[in-house]
Amino acid sequence: MMWIFYGIPLVHPHSILVVTINGVGLVLETFYLFIFVLYAPSAGRRKVFMILLAEVVFMVAVVIGVLAGEHTHERRSLIVGVMCVIFGTCMYASPLAAMRNVVRTKSVKYMPFWLSLASFLNGICWTLYALIEFDIFITIPNGLGALFGFAQLVLYAWFYRSTPKDEPKSELQLPTATVAPGNDGGISLSVR
Fold first, then answer.
1. Which member of 1, 74, 152, 185 lies 3.0 to 4.6 Å from 116 by CB, making a disulfide possible if both were Cys?
2. Exposed / middle / buried, residue 112 (Cβ in 10 Å: 0-12, 13-18, 19+)
3. Once rounded to an integer, what is the mean pLDDT over residues 66-86?
4. For residues 42 and 37, what is the distance between their CA atoms, to the nearest angstrom?
């Protein structure tokens, strides 16, 4: 939500791509959360609602504070941009714990390849956009994100072969029943 606020014309003019792309992302995330809440146990629902409530209250406070307290695009862009840098960097740095775990266990079991690749490619795309637009607030977190994503991919390549493969699950054998005519004219049933 912070990137959407950053991209609106009242804060940072000429950032329509930032608003539209992050707006689509927000819609997809909302849909995902709706499905999660639909099937989650009540404790999970409560936790999600509390986090969403805190996020909405925080965003309302930021929007009111920035729009009422600052009256130039430069100041608004600076304040919201710094917050976006902080939150964006935290988002990209969140897999660092998984990377530490990979190095410690010499296994990539808990670091999904596709998530690492998506993080790297997302960081690259947004960094290229930011360099074209000369927007430092988009460049910093996404440049760091591209570096973190690249580091994850290097770790994945390095430790992939040393990751123990899960044993294939043994097939459950059902008993075989054979029905045959018996010697006495009846039916004979044998189970193996």
1. 152
2. middle
3. 93
4. 9
Alpha carbons 25 and 2: distance in angstroms, whole number? 12
Amino acid letter at 125? C
Looking at 22-176, which runs of residues are DSSP E strands?
none
pLDDT tens-digit series, residues 23-73: 999 999 999 999 999 999 999 899 999 999 999 999 999 999 999 998 898
Per-residue CA distances from 142 to 19, 29, 124, 129, 135 (Å): 16, 20, 7, 10, 11
Sign of CA dihedral 111, 113, 114, 118: positive
Give start and end residues of each alpha helix (H) in 70-108.
73-93, 96-105
Identify how many contiguous H helices and E strands the chain contains and give both numbers. 7, 2
Query: In the chain, what are the domains?
Result: 1-93 (no CATH), 95-164 (1.20.1280)
- pLDDT tens-place string over residues 106-133: 888 888 899 999 999 999 999 999 999 8
